[in-house]
Fold:
Amino acid sequence: MNADDRPEDENPHLDRPLRSFGRIKARPIKPRQAALMETLLPAIAVPDPKAGPLDPRTMMPEATEVWLEIGFGGGEHLAAQAARHPEAVMIGCEPFLNGVASALRHVEEGGLKNVRIHADDARDLVDALPDASVDRVLILFPDPWHKARHNKRRLLQDETAQAFARILKPGGTLRFVTDWLDYAEWALERLNRTEGLERMGTADQDWFVPPADHVVTRYEEKKLGDTTPVFLEFRRLA
Structure:
């Protein structure tokens, strides 16, 4: 086990926020995808957010909307939404390199010109974005960290919920999807108490019903969680 994969109390030298994701690489990347990592990724990579404030409008000046997908897995959802909405710049964040390589294949095969990729921790990018600069935030099936002692590693915390509210434009939306019931309840509690956000839909709306524009991915079909996927939708107030 690497130091970064240990719980906080086992890693006393940790001097940055806890990682909200697990491994960053598994099996060897296929040659074609490895080539895209060398050629396509540099062309569509998001500028380094650690270098300073980052205006998403510079990534695709002609875009009329800015979407941010955090943890895009193999890139199927990201690519599908990009194909459906060529007018929007789709910024995808994913630290898992095999997932990034897979997404690049989808981008190339689809001839997609509106995808930009940040192959690292999404929190760095969110911190660099201006207030009210994003139309949609999509968080689909984040690492659940379902053991109680690891809950502090979850992406959705009070601080990140506040950060998402900050970057959303008035009327902008946040979608959170998980197949772990405890994480759904955890996320709902934190999003409900985030200033500037309101839950969309009615109080008795079935949270197992996917939105009309949801794209089912291979990951979702594996049914790795303990519940049917839960869908939470929030809107940024003016």
In short: Confidence is low (pLDDT under 50) at residues 1-15. The CA atoms of residues 140 and 177 lie 5 Å apart. The longest strand covers residues 168-178. The two ends are 45 Å apart (CA to CA).
